[in-house]
Amino acid sequence: MNLHSGLSRIIHPSRILTSYLHRIAYASDASYFRLVPQAVVQPESTSEIQALFQFTQQHQIPMTFRAAGTSLSGQAVTDGILVDISKHWGQFKVENEAALIRTQPGIVGGFLNNVLRPFGRRIGPDPASIDACMLGGILANNSSGMCCGITENAYRTIRSMTMILPNGFVLDTAAPNAGDQYREGASDIHNGLLELRRRLLEDTELTERVRRRYQMKNNNGYLLNAFVDFDTPLDMLVHLMIGSEGTLGFIAEAVLKTLPDYPRRYTGQLYFRNIQDAASAIYPLRESGARAAEIMDRASLRSVESVPGAPEIVRQLPESAAAILVEYQAESTEQISHFQKEAERTLKHLRLLHDAEFTQDPLAQAALWKLRKGIIPTVGGMRPPGTTLLTEDIVFPVPRLADGITDLQGLFEKHGYAEGVIFGHAKDGNLHFLIAQSFNTDDEIARFSRFTSDMVQLVSGKYDGALKAEHGTGRNMAPFVQTEWGGTAYAIMRDLKSLFDPAGMLNPGVIINPDPQTHVTHLKSMSFVSPEVDKCIECGFCESKCPSLRLTLTPRQRIVVQREISRLKTPGSDPPELDSAKDARAAVPSTMLSTGLGGGAALRDTELMKSLLIDFQYSGIDTCAVDGLCATACPVSINTGDLTRRLRAESVTPRGERTANWLAEHFSLAESAIGFGVLLGHLAESILGAKGVTSVIQTAEKITGTRLPKWNAHIPYPSPRGRGMSEGQGEGEITAIYFPSCVSRQLGTPPSPVFRPRSLSETFLTIANRANINLHIPKDISGTCCGMPFNSKGYTSAYQATLHKAILKFWKWSEGGKLPVVIDTTSCAHTLRTCSNDLSSEDLALYRQMTILDSIEFIHDTLLPKLDLHPIHEDVILHPNCSAQKLGVQDKLVNIAKQCARTATVPLTLGCCGFAGDRGLLFPELTQSATEKETAEVNARDYDGYYSSNITCEIGMSEATGKDYISIVYLVERASRT
User: Fold this and answer.
1) What pTM did the predictor assign?
2) Cα→Cα distances 565→568, 592, 605, 634, Å
3) Residues 424-483: pLDDT tens digits?
4) CATH assignment of 89-257?
5) CA angle 370, 376, 382 (to 5 degrees)
6) Pairing label, strands 264-272, 358-359
7) Interhelix angle for 796-813 vs 654-665, to 10°?
């Protein structure tokens, strides 16, 4: 059977991915396992899920559901059909005055908290990955984190759910007749759960063990407490689906009870002479009302002691020391005052190494949490090349926590994990440990297996703890579920799986797995790619930030594919079989093959390489916006755009390099040509219409075989020469140099008749004059560019030459750094604020003496205080672009708008627009895909104005939404009119 053809009968072919590129891209999740799926499908309806269940059972092909793929235990990979629900399952609704939230599984947990925040509410589960993981994984893994413990997790806060069982039965458990539907439509499961409950309760010793073990965090195996806590089959069904890791069915929708979002916090870091003293403090801190008590051993503290802002005391601690980050949270001032007194009373009885210092200052609190959250990034960044960062979570009984930590440290020493660190949610006895593990040799795999066996015996045997607290059983602890629970409990779990999934096709190998070597099977090796990305731990935190997420590949997937290409270069590699590789086109551009094939690569490897290189050009290189937002979410600060720029640079031909260098040398001519081309485009548009011009360009593309920029109706006009491009100097001493970027010089006049022909530079000078600020535009500004257009395309030498010229001119204009230079395009300001690594030593010496400001901060800090503002009675919406976010000026943009308009809104779904200079003209589908959710939110109601701070982003957002986005400068000008 042709799998793609068979699946096409139930799902549209555009949502079925069977190329080797996509199969490899989805072969990895955040765990240390790697399984290459036969196909990736993206269903969008309940009926398609039902059809997939029937299809996989009929053809005996395993199926696994995957949301964000941030799971750490291998429950989101498969060698069967991978069902990606991250694309079409993102609906939500706030209900019952925000006491409830109804949500589909393909929505990021942190987004739901953002939705609830105006109501003072939040969801209960609080995993560290909440800004990346999706609700499907949160429910399926019963995820928790620093504060929610066992009382606020999904198991305790689930109200109802709509589920689809492997037999195709669909049930909304909140329906008035849900019990009857369940009894009639799935009688075998209904009755089977009652029988399993009877078996458990008849064993009084096991019943007591279940009650006792779920008084602590425990996600190892199925949640047997559902049989003890509930007596109706419907309640048991709902709560058994929680933590089932996608092995019992599909949760299509869930209704969660929300909880108070505590706005007041009292935070301090406590230092102890040794881990025993720290562990003995946990119980009294918990009893005093602390919501978080994060323990850190000396190794974890050492890993972050050089992080900027780390207290000096951290570097001075003795080798045996430990720390606890403790935080109290409350809804009111009275409550936090009560906790403050409780903390003071409790601290008197603790064996502290230094006097405790607590704070209610949000900045100081953030600095403390930065250290705690910096452990994984710093350890991950320091791990040896080619190793995987393994993060495990275990539970020791709180009274025996210190002994457990000491024994675990002994295992690190015994098995050669000198880099091992221990930290975690000590309030719940829940510890995480990090080790760097290579799976590239048999010896390394054997070492890991020995360590795991000893760790299991330590946690489960000596301390009767839990092998999994919050990450889920997955594949890595599946062989040890019976070890922890015993034969009787394991038999109930095994029969539970068979009851729901008798064919065994739903996520097999997860939770229930008879293979004792599962934890060391299908392991992920880390091939070397380049210094930019070798630190990647494949956690997936970057993915929610990526503008190409819904179109092609994410940053993690780009790295995974590059690692596969690197692996295929290695002689003797053993890639999985791929039938579709035979269909790879024979002709591969020589520039793409320049990355090289291993000299001893087999024919099959060559075909796989061809397939990857051909498909990666569009999916991995062309449609990467290189916006760098991925780095803001990456635990190890990887900007995958750097990888893309390097790959683009490697494909640059000598002729292309010469052309780019010529343009850099004669940029004023290029600038004039762009302006002339824009005027011709508008002339053509007046005759043919915007769609007509685009149609002509598309025809030219087909004839020439070259990707050309597309036209759209929102492209601005060039700024009128002689108006706003002159010196712009008023009376008095010059306050700052105003540098209208090349973009604003050639696309500086909005196409909207409301503003044309008033250019951005004219408007900026106007508000400066009203504030009695004297800006100066140099006469020789033409031909000056920050170099970003060259850099983003991989023309490194042209970029550096252009940058060099700009720095020299800035030095002259600023009178040797005396005057600040203000730039009206935020992406250009970001380029110039982050270019130090690309400068020569001579240019760097000048650069460090200059002040370069973005227009947002100049307006906010310098102009607004001196303007007589009259806020206009309008509601406006903003698009703080990715450069504004990376520069950290988005809050200033919002504050400007709030001072100038009645209300100012930032979309909850804000992301990079994907226009990325000219990407949105060359690949308009990238912007359309990147802005899909933001566009829907923006167009859900009418606003009076739409503002940003970057012309190309304004073009992209205007094209996407059909609204006229313009610079925030125009709003300030309107609000400052007398």
Assistant:
1) 0.93
2) 5, 12, 10, 23
3) 999 999 999 999 999 999 999 999 999 999 999 999 999 999 999 999 999 999 999 999
4) 3.30.465.10
5) 115
6) antiparallel
7) 10
